[in-house]
Automatic annotation (TrEMBL):
Organism: Halomarina rubra
Keyword annotations of the record: ATP-binding, DNA damage, DNA repair, DNA-binding, Exonuclease, Helicase, Hydrolase, Isomerase, Nuclease, Nucleotide-binding
UniProt xrefs under InterPro entries: DNA_helicase_UvrD-like_C, DNA_helicase_UvrD/REP, P-loop_NTPase, PDDEXK-like_dom_sf, PDDEXK_AddAB-type, Restrct_endonuc-II-like, UvrD-like_ATP-bd
Enzyme Commission no: 5.6.2.4
Residues that bind ATP: A41, G42, A43, G44, T45, G46, K47, T48
One Pfam match: PDDEXK_1
Domain UvrD-like helicase ATP-binding: 20-441
Reactions this protein catalyses: ATP + H2O = ADP + phosphate + H(+); Couples ATP hydrolysis with the unwinding of duplex DNA by translocating in the 3'-5' direction
The name this protein goes by in its record: DNA 3'-5' helicase
One function term, GO molecular function aspect: ATP binding
Annotated spans, Disordered: 1-33
UniProt-listed GO biological process terms: DNA repair
UniProt keyword DNA-binding present: yes
Length: 1158
């Protein structure tokens, strides 16, 4: 069982004892009798500790514990508060009234059910219930403005189910009912009419302010001003035709701003006419037509503004139209809840607020408590804020939170609840701050402070300051210039973690354990390449929270469910056959070779036709058995049967089994719900999307995930809030990946909550929240914060474009949107805020570690550090060589001796390739070891003789193999990007060399690039690069990768294989080229009969090709089949000593001695 890492934010200090003395700023708050009080407590400053100590003081001074109401966001936090009070006060601590916001509402509604017009037997709708109801009511939506697809193929977030699942809680958290929406939005026909209004405005702009002339004159500008007057009159006519209630009121306001813009633009053209006619502002005459939608894209001279005025109005009206459809679904959802006697989490607060509107009930309820304490107040939403107001008497309110950690606005939290809104509600508010941080080193805090310093709407000016030795720390912030490709950046991160775990970095002061490290991602997709890289490196990791859904094992189980729900889903069924049953590639190819449905082929094809019939039969039997149970078993029982019948968990890694436990829990929750949905493709998509969906659920966002002490934790930044780790890695720090989130219904929600559609730039608000997310991520780190990112390419400024200031001058001050749009250039911000003593780990920490001789181990069940592990292993080795190694009692290790006996009929699966056949032509034993057993190579330096892992280059540095690998990867990446110049290729090679640990091969690879561009082949069009293939020949499957297929200037297709070797190959004798010709017959519609080598090594530059006739192809096919037969029967006993033994990776075997004798 994994354990949660306890945050120092909760206890005050990592060195805290039971009798810890509060710091002076904490003591001031504890001793104060001023109410209401707002405490803005920075990350790691012990806010919960301070609040608990203040409650202790009240109790010690005579306040009964049950006269204090404490509200938190999670049951764990409420229980923790009670436990701390019990430790200090004894059994009296149990009496404190500590609840979550939803739990106190549930208790009130249970007690006053009849006053609240509720059936006291109501249930709380689970997430499963909510999905089931939403899926059920989709048929009641009119789909006038939305697509009926449950999950849109263009993106899960666009489907009707996902829209409705997001829309309902967003409206409820702001207290907006279906009735209020219907009143505001009006009739669908009126919404459609608004589309026509925008079209008429744009047509008027096209008529009055879009001109055909290109050179402005004073007379023409006068005409433009007259045209703006005419446009203004046309807009005024449209405005006056609108109704005076609901949405029409906000559209009228918008039109008024459009009219004011006409006046502002006319003033600009008049005041700066000379600069427009004779100076640098000539493009300004195009600005009116662009802003009013008469151009489809910015005309020459107009920079990227980020919006047009008619476009903004169209977006708002479009969202209102979609909301009209969703409101029908929202109303149907509410009816279903009522029919099933259910309340969802948001309903609990809404109904409790309505209950407390009754003055008699409110007086009775509030008379139970003298004080109300609220934790994490920055995360409350509109209805929760109103609840707290209703529960407080005599202003005896204490709220604690951190406006700098307000990161849940995207799901309804309102940062102003701890800011201006709280100040307005409680005029005599006392403010205190906590700024002493117990957690992080000062360089980390300096960067965290600077990240927020320039926020114009920040509610406080507090700065975090470390205490004790951490204040004087000189290390803490490490930057890594991230590689361009996510996979390469993931390798850099893996390199860094590997070094930290081995104690092999000058940037760290000690050796870390895996459980000391956390990787915090902004988006779920950022985790995938990191997961793959850690797996390859053998670094243990734990996916925390909803990231478990990204697990390969979980995805395979979901694919099985999806295939059962829809047997025609061949993508899912193929995944099941490949990942669970491990069908041979040839068998997968056979099943997919016909036009018949895959399931029919699986059922009807005789077993003897398959390479591995027992696997196919197991897949067929299991799937058909489960398919028979699908329509009779409940969802949860079918899931249990699936795991039992397929023994799925036996085929998952330990990590994947841990990840699957979260899916187990989710599906088990459907047993507890009031409604159990049927198995369907849509339901499985819901499971796949669960993490994304539940992020908008009221009770889930603050739940802390379990973490693993023996593995690197990977989680989203939002899930990490409240946790801390010695080392935190933050990947993908680029402007594109940290762009502010867009929220579809913000303007509508704002308008329905009393705001104006034109008084807020929500993009800027979202950018502020993104900065706070970064601040939260930074402050999770205790000792090292490793930042991995890169600057965006950006767009070059066109000197002929109008300056932004000119465009801003043409807009009324009441227009809230920023010219140029809003972005968060996070890496540039980090670079500008870095502390003086930061470390750059790009060329050190992020490079691969030389693992030769690195030893890790365990002894008697305990993990050994590298030093003791090395000594113990060497001690065992010496005992083995001396012949006095102690025998081991089999009963002490849990492995029966018979389990080590050889199998009666051992079978080894063989995968053939050109490389393996080439090896066979040299030595059968080497083929058997390298391509059948995948045997270990000799350790470097052990009986190596003259051996290296590959032939060294003439430079004596990198091997030919390493140079070839770097060149081939560069060529592949260049083809993907369309890079066509030596400079672009060299830049790619440099990036790859850094991330692959091949910097020592870079110079030689650059020489290869230079030779390539001296070849005629560099001028050929690359049709495909690094094309993988699987070829079936006489029952054998052979795999490979074709370097490139090119088209020459004479329109001839040529297969090319790049060679960085020191020798040329025979075009007539080698089997590689004919094998590729045969493969291309399967890959392409037209046969390719020309193939050859592009020599980029020391024997180049040169391109040598040959043509293949049909007779050549048939002859080559026979030779390939003959070689495959031989490869299928190679063994350890067959070997050929010779010159090649000098370079063999198995030189320590006796056969190498025979070569030396020869």
């Amino acid at each position: 069982m994994s354990e949660q890492k306890v945050s120092t934010e909760a206890v005050g200090s990592e060195e805290e004892s039971e009798e810890m003395t509060p710091r002076p700023d904490q003591q001031t708050i504890i001793d104060s009798d001023d109410y209401p009080m707002r405490v803005l407590a920075g990350a790691g400053t012990g806010k919960t500790f301070t609040m608990v100590r203040k409650i202790e003081r009240l109790i010690e001074d005579g306040t009964p514990p049950d006269r204090i109401l404490a509200l938190t966001f999670t049951n764990n936090a409420a229980d923790s508060m009670r436990e701390k009070l019990v430790e200090k006060l004894g059994s009296r601590g149990h009496d404190i009234e500590a609840y979550t916001y939803h739990a106190i509402c549930h208790e009130l509604l249970q007690e006053f059910a009849y006053h609240a017009d509720l059936d006291p037997r109501y249930d709380i709708a689970t997430e499963a219930d909510q999905f089931a109801i939403v899926y059920d009511v989709l048929d009641e939506m009119p789909y006038r403005f939305t697509k009926p697809e449950v999950f849109d193929p263009d993106g899960y977030g666009k489907g009707a189910a996902q829209r409705l699942l997001g829309f309902i809680p967003a409206m409820k958290r702001s207290g907006i009912t279906p009735e209020k929406l219907e009143t505001y939005l009006g009739e669908p026909a009126d919404l459609l009419e608004l589309d026509e209004l925008i079209e008429r405005i744009e047509a008027a702009a096209d008529e009055h302010v879009k001109v055909s002339w290109h050179k402005p004159t004073h007379d023409r500008l006068d005409e433009m001003c007259e045209g703006l007057g005419a446009l203004k009159e046309a807009i005024a006519t449209e405005r006056q035709s609108l109704e005076t209630d609901g949405l029409a009121v906000d559209v009228r306001s918008f039109c008024s701003e459009l009219e004011a813009t006409c006046d502002q633009l006319a003033t600009l053209l008049t005041d700066r006419a000379d600069e427009i006619v004779d100076g640098d502002l000539k493009p300004a005459f195009k600005l009116p037509a662009y802003l009013f939608g008469a151009y489809s894209s910015p005309p020459k001279g107009i920079p990227k503004v980020g919006f047009t005025l008619t476009g903004k109005l169209q977006s708002f009206i479009g969202n209102c139209q979609v909301a009209s459809d969703l409101t029908a679904g929202y109303a149907a959802y509410e009816r279903r809840l009522d029919e099933e006697t259910l309340l969802d989490f948001n309903d609990l607060v809404i109904r409790a607020n309505a209950l407390l509107d009754d003055e008699d009930v409110r007086e009775w309820v509030t008379s139970q408590w003298d004080y109300v304490f609220c934790d994490e107040y920055q995360d409350t939403d509109t209805v929760q804020f109103e609840l707290v107001q209703q529960l407080v008497t005599d202003d005896r309110l204490f709220v604690v939170g951190d406006d700098d950690q307000a990161i849940y606005e995207w799901r309804g939290a309102n940062i102003e609840n701890i800011g201006s809104r709280l100040s307005a509600a409680f005029a005599d508010l006392t403010d205190e701050t906590l700024e002493e941080n117990f957690r992080s080193r000062q360089p980390i805090l300096d960067l965290a402070n600077d990240a927020l310093e320039h926020l114009d709407s920040r509610g406080s000016t507090k700065e975090l300051e470390a205490i004790g030795e951490k204040r004087d720390a000189t290390k803490g912030v490490v930057t890594i210039d991230g590689a361009e490709e996510p996979e390469d950046e993931a390798q850099q991160i893996t390199n860094a973690i590997t070094r930290l775990l081995a104690g092999e970095s000058e940037l760290a002061e000690k050796e870390y354990d895996a459980g000391d490290v956390a990787i915090l991602v902004r988006k779920n997709k950022h985790a995938q390449p990191i997961i793959r890289s850690l797996e390859r490196a053998g670094v243990p990791y734990e996916l925390a929270g909803d990231l478990a859904d990204e697990s390969i094992g979980v995805q395979t189980v979901l694919a099985y469910l999806k295939a059962l729900a829809d047997p025609g889903d061949e993508i899912s069924l193929n995944r099941v056959l490949t990942m669970r049953y491990r069908l041979h590639d040839a068998d997968i190819a056979r099943l997919n070779a016909t036009e018949e449905p895959l399931l029919e082929e699986l059922q009807s094809t005789p077993a003897e036709r398959f390479r591995e019939p027992e696997r196919v039969e197991a897949a067929r039997d299991d799937f058909m058995q489960l398919l028979d149970l699908r329509d009779t078993y409940s969802l949860t029982r079918l899931y249990r049967e699936l795991k039992d019948v397929t023994s799925m968990e036996w085929f998952l890694s330990e990590q994947e089994r841990r990840d699957l436990a979260q899916l187990d829990e989710l599906i088990a929750s459907f047993d507890d719900g009031a409604i159990e949905p049927e198995l369907s493709r849509e339901f499985v998509d819901f499971l796949r999307l669960h993490g994304e969906i539940t992020e908008s659920a009221a009770a889930s966002s603050e739940d802390q995930p379990e973490t693993e002490d023996s593995a690197v934790d990977i989680m989203t930044i939002h899930k990490s809030k409240g946790l801390d780790f010695p080392v935190v890695v933050l990947p993908q720090l680029t402007a594109g990946e940290w762009s502010p989130n867009e929220r579809t219904y913000d303007t509508l929600e704002h308008a329905l909550s009393g705001g104006s559609v034109l008084d807020t730039d929500f993009a800027r608000r979202d950018e502020h929240e993104t900065r706070r997310v970064f601040h939260v991520a930074l402050t999770r780190a205790e000792e090292l914060s490793i930042l991995v990112g890169a600057s965006g390419e950006g767009s070059e400024d066109d000197d002929e474009n109008l300056p932004d200031s000119v465009i801003e001058a043409g807009l009324p001050e009441s227009i809230p949107w920023e010219v140029g749009g809003v972005e968060f250039p996070i890496w540039e911000m980090i670079q500008s805020c870095l502390p003086d003593n930061f470390d750059d780990g790009t060329e050190t920490l992020a490079t691969p570690m030389d693992t030769d001789g690195v030893v890790t181990g365990m002894h008697d069940g305990d993990t050994l550090a590298r030093g003791p592990a090395r000594k113990r292993v060497l001690s065992l080795a010496r005992s083995l060589l001396d012949g006095d190694l102690d025998a081991v009692d089999p009963t002490t290790v849990g492995i029966p001796v018979e389990a080590l006996d050889p199998l009666d009929t051992p079978t080894l699966r063989r995968r053939h390739s050109y490389t393996s056949m080439d090896t066979l032509s040299t030595c059968g034993r080497k083929h058997y070891l390298d391509h059948v057993l995948w045997a270990f190579e000799d350790p470097t330096g052990v009986n190596a003789g003259e051996r290296t892992t590959a032939v060294e280059s003439s430079s004596g540095g990198a091997s030919v193999r390493e140079i070839g690998v770097l060149f081939h990867e560069t060529a592949e990446r260049a083809a993907i990007r369309g890079a066509a110049s030596p400079a672009e290729w060299i830049e790619i090679a440099s990036q790859l060399a850094a991330t692959r640990g091949l910097n020592h091969a870079l110079d030689d690879a650059v020489d290869c690039i230079d030779r390539y561009f001296e070849c005629e082949a560099s001028q050929w069009e690359v049709i495909t690069a690094e094309r993988e293939f699987t070829l079936e020949l006489d029952g054998f499957a052979v795999t490979g990768v074709i370097d490139a297929v090119c088209r020459t200037p004479t329109n001839k297709l040529v297969i090319l294989d790049y060679k960085a070797t020191t020798k040329k190959r025979s075009l007539d004798e080698d089997l590689q080229l004919p094998l590729y010709v045969l493969a291309c017959e399967e890959l392409f519609d037209e046969p390719i009969r020309e193939a050859g080598y592009a020599y980029v090594g020391e024997v180049g530059p040169a391109v040598e090709t040959r043509s293949f006739t049909d007779e050549d192809v048939e002859t080559s096919k026979a030779r390939v089949v003959e070689q495959l037969r031989a490869a299928n029967t190679s063994s350890f006993e067959e070997y050929t000593p010779g010159e090649h033994c000098k370079w063999c990776p198995h030189r320590s075997l006796p056969c190498a001695e025979e070569a030396e004798l020869d």
